[in-house]
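Lab meeting, action items carried over

1. Structure of the two-component assembly. Owner: GW. Status: complete.
Input record:
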Amino acid sequence: MATPEVDVVVIGGGLAGLMAARALSASGRSVRVLEARDRVGGRTWTRTAASGVPIDFGGQWIGPSQERVTALAAELGIETFPTYAAGSTQYSILETSQVERADARAAMDELDRMAAQVPVEAPWEADEASAWDGQTLQSWLLGRSLDDVSRELLRVLMTGLFTMEPEELSLLHVITYIRSAGSLHQLIKVAQENRLTGGAQTLSLRMADELGPDVVRLASPATAIAQDDSCVRVTTDSEVITARRAIVAVPIVLTDRISFEPPLPAARVQLIQRFATGAAVKVHCVYPDAFWRDNGWNGRSLTGSGYVSVTFDNSPPDGSKGVLVGFIEADKARQFIGLSDTDRRDAVVARFVELFGERAADPDEYLEFEWSEEEWTRGCYSANLAPGGWTRYGPALRRSTGRVHWAGSETSTVWMGYMEGALRSGERAAEEVGLALDGASGRE
Amino acid sequence: MATPEVDVVVIGGGLAGLMAARALSASGRSVRVLEARDRVGGRTWTRTAASGVPIDFGGQWIGPSQERVTALAAELGIETFPTYAAGSTQYSILETSQVERADARAAMDELDRMAAQVPVEAPWEADEASAWDGQTLQSWLLGRSLDDVSRELLRVLMTGLFTMEPEELSLLHVITYIRSAGSLHQLIKVAQENRLTGGAQTLSLRMADELGPDVVRLASPATAIAQDDSCVRVTTDSEVITARRAIVAVPIVLTDRISFEPPLPAARVQLIQRFATGAAVKVHCVYPDAFWRDNGWNGRSLTGSGYVSVTFDNSPPDGSKGVLVGFIEADKARQFIGLSDTDRRDAVVARFVELFGERAADPDEYLEFEWSEEEWTRGCYSANLAPGGWTRYGPALRRSTGRVHWAGSETSTVWMGYMEGALRSGERAAEEVGLALDGASGRE
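Predicted assembly:
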């Protein structure tokens, strides 16, 4: 092959890929980032509503234990602000009677207890890995004594975290994911604490700006990656780039969109086949003001009835507009997608009225986004590994394939599936590549 | 777009694609078949051993209830012959004591009973679909009282059928698959009754010969399929073909290798993500003669110990050589793949010696094949739908996407995963396309 043009080609301009490129660039490596879309940010995407309010269609929250994303925001000069929380939650099945919560609380404690036993670098080595991976979360739930409210609560929480129903999820995957965040408490209470001024995509936009347009190439999907003993060659519709190493930082379910030469090893191929994304729709209503605050409500709700299972106050920090965000997940998302545009809007607004009164009835704007039809995402929030997958194919998750290294939030051992996990995966892949290039400096 | 060059482009030159092309061609439609490899046949592939014996690396058996494949073989002038069965099975855990078999038999009867309740055209409509789809086969097995031998027997049988472990399988998928074949008895006892003279690939080779090289293009992977209101445009590395309709007849896990414009709908994308292939290695030893027959043995075995779980006499019909075939599946296949070439051969030969005596120690040839590293297959025998998948995404399985229709053995309601299923799926897709072309004849 030809002489490498750059040290490293990164495929994917989401948080993982840009973080990898940023780290490599900072250590003096020459980098190229190939992004399929005409924008960076991957599963973070901030659109500006007609009223001028930035609306995050994808990931949006960061929590205090998420060190990398917090540090990166500070480095890039992006301010953060607390998610509005003053006042009471409008309705939450978490806050039904103590008696009813007891069963759910016990189940959540047990999930946390199991999670604490999972070696997060190698979940397949947990003592009970095989038993946990061989059953669905639903089988585990059915094996417990749970009253109806607790059962509903757990379903709402779990579909909220995984955008899949308990019937679809491996118990080992669930507790590995919990472990990577620390605990269920971290996932449910801490992960939503803060927001990023200007929206979450700003992280990627700023990183891309720093790298510059010569480095970050938009609308350049990689179609093929070939490698031999000396280099890697990445093909797009318009060019072929040779490099010493490649980092693939696309959603793991999209890996097959790239043709590999030599073909990927069986373990990686079959690992990829066992990942699937969930279904989720994020809906927003923009109002002239955050009227619910007048009633002492914080805009939050958590319920099993209706399409929208969770709401938050998503207003801009200056309070110039009132924004409610709602999440529709898993089976409900699949049903919701089947409705007409009008019916979807009407269902959401009606629910907001039920929760927050008549002033919710006439939003200035209704915005929704569903990721599974997005060609370069194919589902949200993150991908889950099917029953039996972690114990059989987990060891292939971060294992590099010759000169090709793997990043993406799903490969992170900390806050897997979150922006934090994406950044950490990019750092880890950059470190791997750095070591490889250093070690081989004589030859390469 | 340009005027269609042909009525129908078929992507994939396996049994499904060729059958579709044959049916369409017979009804006067112009057809093009694009096959990625330099051969037709897909998961049927017959190589000639050094001794001249044809060896099937992929699918090889047909059973008396498999009407389409039996009829096609007759039409194409391919003779069939019975799998050698005279004499005794060398060892089978099916034939351990009655007491030990009772638990296994009861479990198999129960699976058959459940299978009979599955509407095979719409498994998601079974009364207990949600409960069955929400658990793994392993959870179901653990819920039964089973002695150790029965448990081992069921694992060997199920990994033999699905090339996945019970921990990986949806119970609803298992019984849907059973239902599509009729019963477990059909799968275990009937499906292996006959073989095809010259090997199973002969079916595809003859169909391709009849269609001719102008129709069947080898080494032509489709990279993109675009469609609009008037036609479909299929791109390969060397050409762009316009047609009225397309049939995609590639293994369902390979769908993402093709770029679709417009992108595929969410339901199909997420359906595909939920399919995964199993792991299987097929091993052959070729001997100067079928020496085991001298001892009154039929060459068969079924056991849970060692890598090889099942063996059969795979000698050619004229008895000119003796061939033993063995199957290594699921977890054992994954372990086996990790051994060195020598260790793999030694392990197989040692097992054959244990089963059939010292004369098995020195085969003229040892041949093995593992499909998961095959770029255009990615695992065998067929793909299984993960827990929760049938009930959520099953309706998308055969639903055409505009001018693109879907074939492949996984889409068949009869003998799903078998050569019979592949042929039926091709017929069904051809029928769909024929109706669409007739119905639209005024316009198209």
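2. GW to write a short summary for the group page. Key points so far: The radius of gyration of chain A is 22 Å. The first strand of chain A starts at residue 6 and ends at 11.
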